[in-house]
């Protein structure tokens, strides 16, 4: 009864859904940037913000030594070990696959695929699109297909005629970023249901919450009774056994199949219990077969992608745009069950309050750290997906209520701080300023305020363990190495700059709530960036505990006072008061230095020439990493704003590509949609350097790439951006009209956009140097 009757549904994508006739789904290519991508990057069998995230794994079983290395699917690889069901930051699990012939119960290696159940595949046999994936497993003549609802993953395997077909469920092994497995179990029941669980110990949990662990559960059903079932733990196979426990646990099911026969399996997932995994399965998929689920998944993706419509003659730019938007929506994933239960930080099961209809009042989400997310994701969420943004805030407040601290990243509520800082307070402050406020505002302010000033007995999982010297002395002493402590930090300068920014953000939150004392306290902290600015050389520079600047200073050197960057890059990290930075350096020098940085950086693709997540850290500029993402927009705070128009356009054209190896630079670190969301915001010509933290948030203008952009907001209002003379070389704004009237400000308020706005932007090949009256 868990499998409904199949309905007729076309797998073809219909034309005519866009003004230019291109299908939205056809304009998304999940394979773009898949070379050297992170674990959570490649999951075509998923819904926006979903829990079930299905995708092929080429090396997911290889481990993840530090917790962040590129692992999972790599576009250069030629064999697939199976299909993983869960892909989140520090979370991975449940590898399913199908084979024929000799049975193997270990995956084998890329170099020696015949030593395991992995299979070779050809790119021409692979189809990846939002909500659906298909590939031919050449070694077994099996076609595998994947799709999903929010919490349920669907697998469909089409076999040749054989008496040795197998479906393998590899449960108890490390997968992706999951960390080492502590325990696992899997059972096949006589009613063709299967259930299992695994407990993992991710590297970031090990670091930031050593007593924590991550539990994941599944409850599945298969639509054909196997002729036999066996269990295994690695190579230790147990025939005719229907359950097993411990590290390496797995099951295999054997079948006789006819030519072209398909076997379907659907699995509900939960981060709380087996019972809830089954509830999720029944609630979302009781009457769905694979084709029905696929149709619903593609419909959902069309709806969400269609909230921003663009018109442009360049197919390549449209593919970049919608692939970037796809990754932005694919990012952070659902972690609560249909009944509103979710994993608490202390290991218990929490309950989201239910509304009058018995539905949870919000959804709880997992998340990578929000380092840099205010320059891409949160701006996009604010305009189009505020309901998700609100749930994001609620998720972090739930962890705060349970543990007393907020964590920059969450893996089933466990602390996974990412880079050891914490920008959640800033993200919450920006949500409030954007009128996203369906949560306990006083609790939100208390959590955000404590995140900026509270250092006594601070939990390492909350990040910012070097906060005390920042608060007490105004700077953080530099200490060589890789550690951060109350005595100082190897990343002393970048942390001080970041804490100054987040202090400013929460200060504006305090101002909006009339909390004058907190406002003054936080504003004082927000000026601490000045104490690491060396006016003799116009660079930020590490200071020792004595207060002296370090000697033998190399502004190109990464990691010496700077996390994932260097002084060339971080000197521009004063986003909360860019006007003050320009004044300190001098407008002429500021513009000259920044313009020359981009002139030189264009030659290296704006992000380094190595296939590496940290490519570009010793360069002048690095579009592939978070600390740099606001920098090309800083010209808007100088006498030459047209240089923002020029260089943002060049970055969109040069850094972003449409190939597996050159999608987001060369193997850059696309953290759960951040670089994709940056392209979306930049290509429509709206961006806020301050991350929407002001009491009246606004966006600065850039040069839109497209002939027309139509954004449907959550309230149903439309933001329409049209360009005139949008031809090659015409990258400079000549004029702006708002709702038919001339507009001469360098920024536009969020409130004006939300009310419904039509921006008409004229473009030309030379700057209009008198366009903005406020500069």
Automatic annotation (TrEMBL):
It holds the Pfam family Glyco_hydro_92N. Keywords: Calcium, Hydrolase. Residues 1-21 are annotated as: Disordered. The keyword Lipid metabolism does not apply. Its cofactor is Ca(2+). Residues 1-13 have a biased composition (Polar residues). Signal peptide: none annotated. Residues 276-764 form the Glycosyl hydrolase family domain. Residues 27-270 form the Glycosyl hydrolase family 92 N-terminal domain. GO terms for cellular component: cytosol. One of its GO terms (molecular function) is carbohydrate binding. GO terms for biological process: carbohydrate metabolic process; glycoprotein catabolic process. Monomer. This is Glycoside hydrolase family 92 protein. The lineage of its organism: Bacteria, Pseudomonadati, Bacteroidota, Cytophagia, Cytophagales.
